[in-house]
Specification:
By secondary structure, the chain is of the alpha+beta class. Helices cover about 30% and strands about 20% of the residues. Strands 9-10-11-12-13-14 form a 6-stranded mixed beta sheet. It comes from Cellulomonas dongxiuzhuiae. Keywords: Cell cycle, Cell division, Cell membrane, Membrane, Transmembrane, Transmembrane helix.
């Protein structure tokens, strides 16, 4: 404190505390031992020591290993795609070009030719495809050509691996012989659809001769429909068929047999059953006429 009576020195003794705190202190002695340099970076508003990133040798090796793995995967993908392309090309050449699956005429089988279709004509059509690999063979086009062979009604062509072919036919078998229009003097052989499948000077054995007015297509169609539905044993006994209209079909049996008045082609299955019953009945043993045109009221005489 100042002695009594001494004037107060407010300007010196009342200095603010902050001024005293700002008095610089002696610098600390430098640390002993090895020194370390610290680089200071300034980023934005913050300024302070930042340590540089340190990449270890182990991390570099790991990155290199991953890069090699990616390169190996890409290499395998390229090789796999190339192998697939080569495989597809080789398979295509094997199936479509090479003779491994080529058609051999010696292994072509034709069935269903019947008595009308000439098998050699069918084979001649197939011969144009000899040596063609079966996968490339156009069976639909070949079938259409086979259908053009006379006497063929339906056809089916099936590959028979590895070198064969099966040609399955449905032939147009003649069911009637119709006298040809003048000046011709022969017989036209017709199937059940009225398609001519051949001709002959004399009716073949077992084939009935049909007598219908010239140009009467409906009458001829009715006769052929009846003949188509007859059982084989009865058809073999029919020597001739005559009809003036489609409702007056009459059949004459062979060897001086009976006459059968059939009428129209309607209810043919029922008429067949009734005729069989009448011919088997003892009461009709000597009958020469069997009228089944009205099958529910048959007549014999």
């Amino acid at each position: 404190m100042p002695p009594p009576g001494a004037p107060a020195r407010r300007d010196q003794d009342a200095a603010p505390t902050s001024a005293r705190a700002a008095t610089p202190r002696p610098a600390a002695p430098p640390p002993t031992g090895p020194t370390r340099t610290v680089t200071t970076y300034t980023t934005g508003r913050f300024s302070g020591p930042v340590r540089p990133a340190v990449v270890s040798t182990t991390s570099r090796e790991r990155f290199a290993e991953r890069a090699r793995a990616r390169r190996n995967i890409a290499r395998r993908q390229v090789l796999g795609a190339a192998a697939a392309v080569v495989g597809v090309a080789g398979l295509g050449w094997l199936l479509l070009v090479s003779p491994v699956l080529a058609l051999d005429l010696a292994q072509v089988e034709v069935t269903g030719a019947g008595t009308v279709v000439a098998v050699d004509q069918v084979l001649a059509v197939v011969a144009d495809r000899s040596g063609t690999p079966l996968p490339r063979l156009d069976t639909v086009g070949l079938r259409d050509q086979v259908l053009e062979v006379p006497g063929v009604r339906e056809a089916r062509v099936v590959r028979d691996w590895p070198h064969g072919l099966a040609v399955q036919l449905v032939s147009r078998e003649p069911v009637a012989a119709v006298p040809e229009a003048a000046p011709a003097s022969g017989l036209a052989l017709l199937d059940e659809q009225g398609v001519q499948v051949g001709r002959a000077d004399v009716a073949p054995a077992g084939l009935p001769v049909v007598d219908v007015p010239v140009g009467e297509e409906r009458t001829l169609s009715a006769v052929l429909s009846v003949l188509e539905q007859l059982p084989p044993d009865l058809l073999a006994q029919v020597e001739s068929v005559a009809a003036r209209t489609q409702d007056t079909v009459t059949m004459q049996l062979r060897d001086g047999g009976a006459r059968i008045d059939w009428g129209s082609a309607d209810e043919t299955p029922l008429k067949i059953a009734v005729l069989a019953a009448l011919r088997a009945a003892p009461e009709a043993g000597g009958a020469q006429v069997f009228d089944v045109s009205a099958p529910r009221m048959p007549i014999t005489r």
